Amino acid sequence: MLRQLLIRPLMASTLLLLFSAGFHLALAQDDVTTQNGSTGYGGGWITGPASNPLSFLNGPAYRTTGQNTPYDLPDFAPMTALDAQLPSWISFGLEERIRAEGMENQGFKLNDDDNYLLNRWRFAMQIKPTSWFKIVGQMQDARAWFQQPPLQPPNTNRFDLKLAYAEFGDPENQWISVRVGRQLINYNDTIIANSEWRDQARSYDAVVTNLHLSRLRLGIFAASVVVPMDEGISHHVEGNNIYGMYGRINNVLLPTSTLEPFVLWRVDPTVSVVPTAESKAKTGHESEQAYGIRYKGLVARDFDYSIEGIREGGTDGDNNIRAWGTTEGIAYRFAAVPWKPRLFTQYDYASGDKNPKAPVHETFDTMYPTAHDRFGISDQFGWQNIKAIRTGFTLEPHNRWTLTGQWLDFWLASATDSLYNTSGGSIIRNTAGTAGNHIGQELDAYTWYELNRHVNIGVGVGHILPGQYLDIMEKGAHFSYPYFAINFKDNGPAHISRPE
User: Fold this and answer.
1) pLDDT-derived band of residue 275, with 50, 70 and 90 as boundaries?
2) How many domains is the chain built from?
3) Which residues, in sequence order, are bridge partners of residue 294?
């Protein structure tokens, strides 16, 4: 109730600010809290830069080594120029993303193809009268053209409210800050993040307290994920909440490392409960706790490592929850070699139900992860009932240009559980376990080029080759996903944070 009293008036006042400003974009939510959720140290990725194009302005990514060198093309930053003429307490900005993508045999159904164009723009405004207080609002319009109906999220989300929050305190320069309202949460890309590749991405209606003292950080939050509508102001679902504490301790055991212990508590009043042998499917109340730890770092500037483990417990209705997941990865860059080749490898595991009729829920719950390139750029599988290995490389032919190729191999952790998508939905199910557990393999290739500080382009293609499981269950349908993307983001000159 307190959260509703705080958030709803804030959203209304933010809308008035946006309309009075003529729909110009303010400084978006760019700080260490949102940038450091990725698997690598300092906001980077253990794997290649698939989900975002290189720049600090476009979220955490594996950086090129050309950060301090000139760009090839002149900059284009109209909001930065505008903000330079305005009082320091107000700033504007702008985002625009165009992406063309296709799907061949989508859902692993033969001859079910789709090709379409996505466009997303964001406008927002920041009011910051003092160093310790600001209000941020951001409008978003995401649309799909030429896509097969129905046109709905995640590709269509017209005239929505993406951000609407007030922040008391500076999370970088003060020991405590509180952020109230619609915001991003991105502490950990595997389980609690904003999934920016999606056209509408993810927001949370939340109250977040960030503590920062020397090497220590702690985020304490109560949140409810926003469920996007086709059009208009989206809302969260009452009672479907997530609470958590996410810690971060720098330089533990090794320099340039972080240790991240965390605990999450998810509640849902109407979760689907797996039936037992004596009962039918029904809904019940979920109370799920996840306890995890992640350790990641960078050795001698060229060797990255990350290891994470999560244990889940609690109840789904009358069923107990006993699930777990782990992910480990390493990467090494040969900095002295032409094109600076970087090799990476990663292993992922998430448990599944061994006996779907037993009164125990063993399927790992991925909660709210970053979807893109969690298991390849085709984005067909989620971190549930899966074993995956990946290896690949990134080349840097130019200090603003990367090329990446990778191979992945997928297996079901339990042949009697479902194959799940990135949203946690069951896409193929064979509880008898008669189709084996080798899902298939994926081959990906993609490239990103940063034209200037605010514009970059990318091209990629992912292809899934069916294994025994897909051969039997879906008649051997392969899957292909090509894309071309142009990104523009100008948040104005104000306070763009850099990951530590």
Assistant:
1) low
2) 1
3) 260, 308
Specify the pLDDT at position 188. 92
d(CA 87, CA 492): 13
Would strands 319-333 and 360-361 be described as parallel, antiparallel, or unpaired?
parallel
Q: Which domain holds residue 38?
A: 2-490
CATH number at residue 12: 2.40.160.100
Q: What is the pLDDT of residues 289-328, one digit of tens each?
A: 999 999 999 999 899 999 999 999 999 988 999 999 999 9
* Partner residues linked to 278 by β-bridges: none
46 within some domain: yes
Separation of alpha carbons 478 and 164, rounded Å: 42
One-letter amino acid of 468: Q
How far lies 393's CA from each of 62, 107, 339, in Å? Answer: 12, 28, 11
| pLDDT tens-digit readout, 150-192 | 889 999 999 999 999 999 998 888 999 999 999 999 999 999 9
Q: What residues have CB less than 8 Å from 137, skipping those under 6 apart?
A: 14, 15, 17, 18, 26, 124, 125, 161, 163, 164
Q: Which residue has the tokens 């600090």?
A: 56
Q: What is the pTM of this model?
A: 0.89
Helices (H), 89-145: none
